[in-house]
């Protein structure tokens, strides 16, 4: 294969092996892989779908949290959920990571963002919502900030906020905007530069917002926007808030456990929440507030080790888990009318599946690197050597960041086959967040294991 031929063959494949972005919007059926193997009782997506559809026959909307490791595929699952429920709900997808600041965001920013997201989506869907609906929400928040933050003259500008939030809606919404939207509005929205929406209201004022008069004024203004949209389109609003899984554990507690404000919007709600929060006792408080707290586990590409086996021993391949990861590759290659055998040797694909740890983003990036190496070497197919090069590239990154505390905590957790908690909690949170320590579930239970590409580093 010549250099030009390699470029022509590999470039489009490499482009399609990127972490999920707007290029895939509207094509979920082409690349979505059902990791539950057709068993809806083991599918976080289907459990959420069932809860949401069942709630249509009740006056109280369904509110849920979805968690999972970064890169586990939550955004894909939420896009799929939005697609499958588009006929039953007016779906609004709001990417909080894009519009808000995960380090500092609180209920004020989220309530404002949600209100503007519903309003902007209604505009893009040609429902022509009355400006007064959004102005009332902005005025209630502005009045609160002037009073409690002592910011005289503070005022929110609707046009500016809609521009900010509309960018996020266009970039991340598979259903709420992309299908059936106003083309002119979409073009105009994408021309705007996304900037962070930050009210900078202190966390100490959340309790003040919970006071009945303030709560009624602010939340009622948000709910009037939701109710208008529901009356206009004849469907209940489903708000999917992605990106809040990036907040740290203390902020997750503030958002989802210490206050019920995020349950107050009168629409169906699904929030992405952090993996570390799910594994801590404080998550029980969130389960008292929300109807469901679902976990999207990583695909178990290795079988759970027996208790009498040393934690340093090699893991046994789970063929069913590896096949899920192979299907991820198969579907993306099918877009180019290519089979897996056309592009990668079977043993090379299995190696990538194993070393992904069952993390969807890791699988995509491992394949991307291997395909890039094939292009650089003018090869027609990814062989075992190229797959190993991709694996080693990932391992080097893991090694660079594997400090002594990480190593010691990992070894202890693997030996005890459990999270340690206590003084180790903050380190464990980092290990979970950065995918050194992975969590899995199957029909027999839940467990933790080290990332398979980090295991050789611990042995060393």
Quick summary:
This protein is an alpha/beta fold and 460 residues long.
Write the layout of secondary structure elements.
Elements: H1 3-16, H2 28-31, H3 44-55, E1 63-67, H4 74-84, E2 89-95, H5 96-99, H6 107-124, H7 131-148, H8 158-172, H9 183-190, H10 206-209, H11 212-233, E3 236-242, H12 249-256, E4 268-273, H13 275-278, H14 283-289, E5 292-295, H15 319-334, H16 340-343, H17 346-355, H18 360-376, H19 384-401, H20 404-416, H21 425-433, E6 437-442, E7 445-450, H22 455-459
Parallel strand pairs: 1-4, 1-5, 2-3, 3-4
Antiparallel strand pairs: 6-7
Helix pairs in contact: 1-18, 3-4, 6-7, 6-8, 6-11, 7-11, 15-17, 17-18, 17-19, 18-19, 20-21
Structural write-up:
The protein is α/β, with parallel strands linked by helices and 460 residues long. The protein has three domains: 3-16 and 316-400, Helicase, Ruva Protein, domain 3 (Orthogonal Bundle); 38-295, no CATH class; 403-459, no CATH class. 52% of the residues lie in helices and 9% in strands. The chain has 22 helices and seven strands. A five-stranded parallel β-sheet has the order 2-3-4-1-5, sandwiched between helices. Strand 6 (437-442) and strand 7 (445-450) form a beta hairpin. Helix 3 packs parallel to helix 4 and helix 18 (360-376) packs across helix 19 (384-401). 44% of the residues are buried. The model is unreliable at 170-194 (pLDDT under 50).
